[in-house]
Amino acid sequence: MAAIAREMHKEYAAVVNAGFILQLDAPDLAMERTLLFQDKSDAEFVKVLEQHITAINLALEGIPADRVRLHVCWGNWEGPHVHDVPMEVILPTLYNAKVGALGLEFGNSRKQHETAAIRKHKLPDSMMLIAGVIDSKSNIVEHPDVVAQRIEAVVAAVGDRERVISGVDCGFGTFVGYEWVTEDVVWAKLKTLRDGADIASTHLWGKKAALN
């Protein structure tokens, strides 16, 4: 992993040096608890996770944390997800990543309760939270008020409205030609994400903020 990390550092640095924000999508930090490490306990998986975070930090060495986002992926397939590792188990280790923002899932029926994990393990002051408030596994288009409620629940858990960004649980098109959500529904979901964020902004900052 260290050898891979050293090679990936070159690509990561090139992205940041080109003026972009680097987003790392990391299914190994959550999804692989189900897919590759079913034989391990949660505590044993955390030990694996610590190794992966160490490798990520090595790959990010010298790159400003505020130019990096880390998306933690539980997998975006439409399935039961009953064996997903709880957010509470992995959060303390995720917080050791040298990144400016964490992307976590709160927008589906298996993860919406996970705001409790954020309350228990407070987000470090140096990090922002990209809260997934749209379900990437379903063709149901969320109501904007539902999206707003999810955003506000995350803000309440974090305790700082300035450090929460609304987003989608995961990608809509992981594999070419193998999407769970149809393209027209994707665009409708992204619109309701914006509409819900406007509603939440009105509640959290006042009417003027949502119009800017």
Number of helices in the DSSP assignment: 8
Class based on secondary structure composition and strand pairing? alpha/beta
SSE string:
HEHHEHEHEHEHH
Termini separation: 45 Å
Number of strands: 5
Overall tally of domains: 1
Mean pLDDT: 93
So what's the CATH class? Alpha Beta
Largest sheet composition: 5 strands, parallel
Using the 3D structure, state the CATH architecture: Alpha-Beta Barrel
CA-atom Rg in angstroms? 17 Å
General shape: globular
Q: Numbering strands along the chain, what is their spatial order in the largest sheet?
A: 1-2-3-4-5
Percentage of residues assigned to helices: 40-55%
Stretches where pLDDT falls below 50 for ≥5 residues?
Answer: none
Report the portion of residues in β strands: 5-15%
Summarize this structure as a short list of keywords or feature phrases.
212 residues; alpha/beta; TIM Barrel; 8 helices; 45% helix
Question: How would you portray this structure in words?
Answer:
- By secondary structure, this protein is α/β, with parallel strands linked by helices.
- The chain has a single domain, classed as TIM Barrel (Alpha-Beta Barrel).
- Helix content is 45%, strand content 13%.
- It is built from 8 helices and 5 strands; from the N terminus they run H-E-H-H-E-H-E-H-E-H-E-H-H.
- It has helices at residues 2-17, 32-35, 42-59, 87-94, 115-120, 144-158, 183-205, 207-211; strands at residues 22-26, 68-72, 101-105, 128-134, 164-168.
- The protein has a 5-stranded parallel β-sheet.
- Strand 3 (101-105), helix 5 (115-120) and strand 4 (128-134) form a beta-alpha-beta unit.
- Helix 1 packs across helix 3, helix 3 (42-59) packs parallel to helix 4 and helix 6 (144-158) packs across helix 7 (183-205).
- The longest helix is centred in the C-terminal third of the chain and has 23 residues, at 183-205.
- It is globular.
